[in-house]
Design brief:
alpha/beta, six-stranded parallel β-sheet, 13% strand, binds nicotinamide-adenine-dinucleotide, binds uridine-5'-diphosphate-glucuronic acid, 480 residues, Rossmann fold, UDP-Glc/GDP-Man_DH_C_sf, UDP-glucose 6-dehydrogenase
């Protein structure tokens, strides 16, 4: 029986391995992690991450051919194929701080593999890593190989959170990069055979190592660039009376452009877009390509501009101050159908409002108070380190309350900011909400999910990103 071990039981390692186990009953899959609580959660009824369909997949295979364990050494030693899916955060100090990928966790996983292996291994990069990481890993593994042969493959993951299980069941493509030697090609075929259990062969792309590593960074940069492009247009729409939804629709109808990923928003979030673009920028700089670096940096700059612009709209509409005012924040996760808050735009928006001394009342159906307090008090980039390395008891931000109901959050509020596009926010009883708010009552829709005209009929003053402005807002400055 082929044995797979995956190091890192996170958003990628957990769901990916669960799907491999489901689709390949003849393969034993063990997911290992240094985090004891995370592994305990994977072995319990309360999985550590919320992802539609995941629980069903885990329940079907856990205990049969899918296992979660903290015995990292044993399972690495036993495995034929080792996936490494540990975090690759942005460096917070030293050379390349604020841009380069921190490969500490990757390196320690590689050293562990080198220490405990007693048989030949295929080592698969699942984490998103800088181009040429495979070369560094190879050096660690082969430096003291004791006659063991290692083949390194790059097999980046393209799943998106909230749709991870669907994405894994029906991927647009699976990408496998390897050395162009006979041994490298054999390793590619071995991994291809795993995916071929459910992925059509023409969707499995095989390349050299560096193309696979770079394609992952490029794909995320292209996706984020689309959002920054449409968000840049949203500012111009507000200035001219155009409607960004109509512009996106018209532009996306061109089959060369395509309609997906053109929704204007308060800004993109998530654990990877910013991190991977910063990483790309750093690689360009290191390779003497400052013009290319500047080009991609702009995608992040527009994203920051969009979040600032939103906060400024809120403050300037409300008589240029939110000091002491209650602002309800609906949605804190970085997108709907996930409890993940990594780099969510809600953090920057809430910090902006708190900076102007607002009282903020937050409701998100999937995010806990502890997580929100942690996010609002943590230093930039600290979030992407294993939980046991993060501050244990974050300082509580006193002007923030977290409630479990949208009606409670909006009661007596002066304004509402919709920051995540949860479906339930589309169908709230906005008349009831309006009746219980201070007047004038404001709605700032950062996801364009409410019908501004209907809300205006109720009496709200409404701001929707990139839509023709409410008369109230027309003469107010958009950007400070
Ligand atoms: P995560 O933080 O959820 O999980 C990483 C896990 O690795 C943690 O549980 C941590 O405890 C564990 N870990 C760290 N060092 C370890 C070690 N030496 N031994 C054992 N376990 C160790 O991260 P994630 O979101 O799953 O992302 C993992 C990688 O995949 C990143 O490189 C990321 O860029 C990439 N990626 C993420 C997504 C996504 O949607 N989250 C999608 C595609 C790619
Ligand atoms: C993204 C990519 O879509 C995945 O392919 C990739 O594997 C993953 O990053 C990764 O490398 O981590 P994810 O961050 O989970 O996946 O979610 P997305 O659906 O891409 O959304 C990212 C952010 O962009 C969210 O905040 C979302 O609300 C925002 N977004 C998305 C928009 O503002 N407008 C859009 O049209 C689409």
């Amino acid at each position: 029986m082929v044995k797979i071990c995956c190091i890192g039981a996170g958003y990628v390692g957990g769901p990916t391995m669960a799907v491999i186990a489901l689709k390949c009953p003849h393969i034993e899959v063990v997911v290992v992690d240094i985090s004891v609580p995370r592994i305990a959660a994977w072995n319990s009824d309360q999985l550590p991450i919320y992802e539609p369909g995941l629980e069903d997949v885990v329940k079907q295979c856990r205990g049969k051919n899918l296992f979660f364990s903290t015995d990292v050494e044993k399972h690495i030693a036993d495995a034929d194929i080792i996936f490494v899916s540990v975090n690759t955060p942005t460096k917070t100090r030293g050379l390349g701080a604020g841009k380069a990928a921190d490969l500490t966790y990757w390196e320690s996983a590689a050293r562990m593999i080198a220490d405990v292996s007693k048989s030949n291994k295929i080592v698969v990069e699942k984490s998103t890593v800088p181009v040429k990481t495979a070369e560094a890993i190879e050096k660690i593994l082969t430096h003291n190989s004791k006659g063991i042969e290692y083949q390194i493959l790059s097999n980046p993951e393209f799943l998106a959170e909230g749709t991870a299980i669907d994405d894994l069941f029906k991927p647009d493509r699976v990408l496998i990069g390897g050395r162009e030697t006979p041994e490298g090609q054999k390793a590619i075929q071995a991994l291809k055979a795993v995916y071929a259990n459910w992925v059509p062969e023409d969707r499995i792309i095989c390349t050299n190592l560096w193309s696979a590593e770079l394609s992952k960074l490029a794909a995320n940069a292209f996706l984020a660039q689309r959002i920054s492009s449409v968000n840049a247009m949203s500012a111009l729409c507000e200035a001219t009376g155009a409607d960004v939804a109509e512009v996106s629709h018209a532009v996306g109808k061109d089959s060369r452009i395509g309609s997906k990923f053109l929704n204007s928003s308060v800004g993109f979030g998530g654990s990877c877009f910013q991190k991977d673009i910063l990483n790309l920028v750093y690689i360009c700089e290191c390779n003497g390509l400052p013009e290319v670096a500047t080009y991609w940096k702009q995608v992040i700059k527009i994203n920051d501009y969009q979040k600032n612009r939103f906060v400024n709209r809120v403050v300037s509409s409300m008589f240029n101050t939110v000091s002491g005012k209650k602002i309800a924040v609906l949605g804190f996760a970085f997108k709907k159908d996930t409890g993940d808050t990594r780099e969510t735009p809600a953090i920057d928006v809430c910090k902006g409002l708190l900076g102007d001394k607002a009282r903020v009342s937050i409701y998100d159906p999937q995010v806990t108070e502890d997580q929100i307090q942690r996010d609002l008090s943590m230093n930039k980039f600290d979030w992407d380190h294993p939980i046991h390395l993060q501050p244990m008891s974050p300082t509580t931000v006193k002007q923030v309350s977290v409630v479990w109901d949208a009606y409670e959050a909006t009661k007596d509020a002066h304004g509402i900011c919709i920051l995540t596009e949860w479906d339930e926010f589309k169908n709230l009883d906005y008349q009831r909400i309006y009746d219980n708010m201070q007047k004038p009552a404001f709605v700032f829709d950062g996801r364009n999910i409410v019908n501004p005209e209907k809300l205006r009929e109720i009496g709200f003053i409404v701001y929707s990103i990139g839509k023709p402005l409410d008369a109230w807002l027309r003469d107010m400055p958009a950007v400070a």
